[in-house]
């Protein structure tokens, strides 16, 4: 079974490759990160006549965007009652409206340009199968009514589950994200945009009138404005985003059902949550079933999460085939509202967009629309809602203390862990924490016997990484950095690879 959704989406979408940046460049705007935020923003700015360079550390569309389930919805779990209590009714309404406008933008872009991306409108449901959770559904429904969000409070849902209560948000959507983004890329290039892959932005040197983006290979991009749209901000300066974001992983199965699917997109309010929706893929209908989220680098063996999802699928829908599986990583802010805007107040030409939780399709589009206005000097009513400099004591202070206490715990536990296995004990296609010369290390042996041994100390802030058997990676339990089995960086905030140890 493929373990990457990039292979899932890319299997039916030919995406061009682009050269690495090898010479210095001067443009109006440098956009770092080739996901939906970066591509959408680059597309919008190029339409406005701006000279834009889009830089991606890897290959375009192979990262977080390639690992999405591609739900286009403003129904972001049970969020609106929580937002009313934490940031107020006005901002909660703005949050809905920003995401609703993002849906409208995607819908209009698809229809006006006749993009073939399997766009389909669906009703979105949040439901519970537990009597104890009915009160949460009722509170969320009251929040819908208070904010004027269109919807319906119901009991049953079309799925074969014993739902006790549900909320329906109509006229949401789903699509093939990479087919949609391929169209934006084409128009971006036609409007003079430039794309550079395998180009890792490492730092920014603020200046006047131009700022300089420095890449890992030493090439430079001079620009008036720079935007960090990478999954984790590549430019933190004094924003301390590593302490204001926490990383979670979730798991998805691509399922071939033997029976019919009733339609709709579903998310359970129970624990563990379950996400269900259909997708058209290579001419056949599949079901995407997700859930099992947990903090990166923490919890049980990752393969167990796939096994639990498979049990849920078979118990709910009967016999089926499961040809695809993958996992995704998402970042959450202290108050669950994304950080979109100036990296810090005193750098007016450096911007950031991150912290979308599980809702990247609408949040990233809302981010692109907001950042486009900010760069062009156009007032936008969502700027205060998303500003990264905000801080609400409730819930931000509590979340900050809890998350950073968790970091401290794992930092200490990793240093105190007693390891007894040796590298020679590691079997083919197995990874494990081992002991080398009296020190903690990590070993992975390929099927052909090739052994890789790395220093397990995360290069970000020194926590000890853990083995992820499901994805064959080394994951940091403190701030969510991830490394390949041979030590290369897959996810930030770490920028340097794990040190390889000769053995």
UniProtKB/TrEMBL annotation:
Gene3D superfamilies for the chain: D-Amino Acid Oxidase, subunit A, domain 2, FAD/NAD(P)-binding domain, Rieske [2Fe-2S] iron-sulphur domain
UniProt organism field: Paenibacillus beijingensis
Name of the protein described by the UniProt record: (2Fe-2S)-binding protein
InterPro entries from the UniProt entry: FAD-dep_OxRdtase, FAD/NAD-bd_sf, Rieske_2Fe-2S, Rieske_2Fe-2S_sf, Rieske_Fe-S_prot_C, YhfW_C
Molecular-function GO terms, alphabetical: 2 iron, 2 sulfur cluster binding; metal ion binding; monooxygenase activity; oxidoreductase activity, acting on paired donors, with incorporation or reduction of molecular oxygen
UniProt keyword annotations, A-Z: 2Fe-2S, Disulfide bond, Iron, Iron-sulfur, Metal-binding
Any one Pfam family match given in the protein's UniProt record, by short name: Rieske
Rieske domain segment(s): 418-503
GO CC annotation: cytoplasm; membrane
PROSITE patterns reported for this sequence: RIESKE (PS51296)
SUPFAM superfamilies per UniProt: FAD/NAD(P)-binding domain, ISP domain
């Amino acid at each position: 079974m493929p373990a990457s959704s990039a292979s899932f989406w890319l299997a039916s979408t030919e995406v061009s490759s682009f050269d690495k940046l090898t010479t210095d460049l001067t443009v109006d705007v440098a956009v770092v990160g080739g996901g939906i935020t970066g591509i959408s923003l680059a597309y919008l700015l190029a339409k406005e006549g701006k000279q834009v360079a889009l830089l991606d550390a890897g290959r375009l569309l192979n990262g977080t965007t390639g690992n999405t389930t591609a739900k286009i919805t403003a129904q972001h779990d049970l969020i609106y009652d929580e937002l009313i209590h934490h940031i107020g009714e006005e901002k909660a309404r703005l949050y809905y409206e920003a995401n609703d406008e993002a849906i409208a933008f995607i819908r209009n872009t698809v229809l006006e340009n006749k993009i073939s991306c399997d766009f389909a409108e669906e009703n979105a449901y949040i439901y519970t199968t537990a009597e104890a959770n009915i009160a949460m559904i009722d509170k969320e429904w009251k929040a819908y009514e208070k904010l004027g969000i269109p919807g319906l409070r119901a009991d049953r849902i079309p799925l074969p589950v014993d739902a006790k209560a549900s909320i329906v948000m109509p006229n949401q959507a789903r699509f093939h994200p990479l087919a949609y983004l391929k169209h934006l890329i084409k128009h971006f290039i036609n409007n003079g945009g430039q794309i550079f892959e395998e180009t890792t932005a490492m730092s920014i040197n603020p200046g006047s009138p131009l700022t300089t983006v420095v890449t890992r290979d030493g090439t430079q991009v001079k620009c008036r404005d720079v935007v960090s749209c990478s999954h984790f901000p590549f430019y933190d300066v004094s924003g301390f985003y590593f302490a204001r974001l926490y990383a979670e992983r979730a798991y998805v199965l691509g399922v071939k059902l033997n029976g019919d699917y009733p339609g709709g997109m579903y998310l359970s309010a129970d624990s563990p949550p379950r996400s269900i929706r259909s997708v058209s893929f290579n001419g056949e209908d599949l079901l995407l079933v997700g859930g099992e989220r947990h903090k990166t680098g923490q919890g049980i063996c990752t393969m167990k999460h796939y096994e639990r999802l498979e049990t849920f699928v078979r118990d709910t829908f009967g016999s089926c085939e499961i040809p695809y599986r993958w996992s995704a990583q998402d970042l959450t802010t202290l108050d669950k509202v994304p950080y979109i805007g100036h990296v810090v107040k005193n750098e007016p030409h450096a911007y950031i967009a991150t912290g979308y939780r599980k809702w990247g399709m609408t949040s990233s589009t809302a981010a692109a629309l907001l950042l486009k206005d900010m760069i062009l000097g156009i007032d936008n009513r969502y700027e205060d809602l998303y500003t990264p400099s905000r801080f609400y004591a409730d819930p931000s202070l509590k979340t900050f203390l809890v998350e950073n206490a968790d970091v401290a715990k794992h930092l200490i536990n990793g240093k105190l862990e007693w390891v007894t296995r040796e590298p020679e004990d590691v079997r083919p296609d197995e990874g494990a924490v081992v002991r080398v010369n009296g020190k903690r290390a990590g070993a992975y042996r390929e099927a052909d016997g090739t052994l890789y041994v790395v220093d397990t100390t995360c290069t970000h802030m020194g926590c000890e990484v853990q083995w992820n058997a499901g994805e064959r990676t080394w994951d940091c339990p403190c701030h969510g950095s991830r490394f390949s089995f041979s030590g290369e960086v897959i996810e930030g905030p770490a920028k340097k690879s794990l040190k390889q140890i000769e053995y």
